[in-house]
Every structure is written in structure tokens, then in C-alpha cells.
Write the C-alpha cells for this entry.
Amino acid sequence: MPSPAFGDEGFTFAELLVALSLLLISLIAVAGLASTSSLMTASARERAAMVNAAASYLERARQVPYASVGTPSGDPSGTLLPYVAVSGSYTVTITPVVTWGLVDAPTVPPNHDLKTVTLYVSASRTGGGSPMTYTTAAVFADVGTVGGALPGGAGEPLVFVTGALEALRVSSHDPALRVRAGIG
């Protein structure tokens, strides 16, 4: 029987073990990347649900007459209530807090021509996990008393969005990001 030519013996056990180890390390890295990507996608969806819920809440608040911007048991009193929404696999809770004047620049006595609506937004996955929280604020101005040169009638709120949500920064022709409220 002829002897095999040099180099035709195949792989040794050591070569096979090294090759399988490299393949296993590569597969573990890819699995970790897929897991991290999935978690980041879920977090982005949760954040988007919160942003959309807050934007929707402020849009509804803009429809309320200035005199009604407040909470039933607060000062100022009004009609804004906490809101719970289910968006996909997330439960989003919005708790409004309304104060007189500007939160960033309080005055004594408080400015009753301005109201700051602060939204405390939290979202939790229905399957569990740690909740995500967010806070944003908008300043409502009584156009009848504050905005002499501004469009709109008395009692119609003017909204200055002060939160960090870019989705809430509605396009405006005014550099102060003022948004004329549309009261239907």
C-alpha cells in the first residue's frame, strides 16, 4: 500500500480544537451583540411611547381654556387629570402638576398670567422590568393679558414648551418657540 503524500493526512485534533474555539468565541460575541441590540430597541420603543404620550397630553391641554389649566385639587385649580395609556407592551402614566408663573423664575406674588404645566411621565413594560421616567414642562400664558401683540383672543392659552423633548418643540415662526393654541 502506498504511503500518503506529505500534507495529505488531514487536520490534527489540536488544529480542529483551535478552529472550533475561534468559531465558538465569534458566535458568543454575535449573540451578545444581538441581545444588546434587542434591549436598546426595546428601550427606544419605550422612550418613544413616553414622548408620544406626553406630546399628545400637551396637545389636549392646549385645547383647554386658560382658566381651566390646572388640576382639580391644586392651585391653580382646573381640569387636567392624570392619564394612563397602554401603548403596545408599555403602560405610560402621566401626572400633571400645575403651578402659577414660571418654575424657573418664581415671583412673589406669583404671576397669575402664566401657568407652568409639568408632566411627570413614567413607562413600564407589562412583562416587568424597571420603569423609565421622564419630566417635561410647558408654560401656558393667558394671551388676553400677556400677549397684546400676539394673535389669539382673551382666554386663549399660549404655550411655551420648555422640556427637552424635541418631538414637543412644535415648529414656530417665533424664536421663543411659542405655539398659538388652537381652540376649536
